[in-house]
Amino acid sequence: MNAAAPAKLNDMYEMDRWVSDSDGKLFGWAHCSSLESESAVNACVKENGIVDNVVKYLGYDQMPSMQWTGAGFLLLGTIALTAFALWWASRRPL
Question: Which of 12, 15, 44, 53 has the fewest CB neighbours in a 10 Å radius?
Fold first, then answer.
């Protein structure tokens, strides 16, 4: 579990991190590491069968499309709110 992260992860944004057993069951990152002694940590790892680190990441190449999508939603919301405000104001007497 102490393996160094691949160099490719330096070009990514880490979203979440877990540890898993050989069947793929996920445990929180601090599932065993919050115990007091190293022997207790090792016993927890053996008991749960933890064998792997799992990292969910977002590549920096995906961010521009996400940012443009978010900007599009904000623009649509602005247009809808402006249209509603103009419609509502036109129905009110001055």
Answer: 15
Q: Rounded to 5 degrees, what are φ and ψ at 27?
A: -125, 150
**Burial tier of 53 (Cβ tally within 10 Å: 0-12, 13-18, 19+):** middle
55 backbone dihedrals φ, ψ, rounded to 5°? -125, 125
Quote the CA–CA distance of 18 and 30 in Å, as a whole number: 8
- Output the pTM of the full model: 0.47
Rg (CA), the chain: 24
Helices (H), the chain: 38-48, 63-90
55, 50, 56: which is closest to 20 by C-alpha?
A: 50
The string of pLDDT tens digits covering residues 29-50 is: 777 877 778 888 888 888 888 8
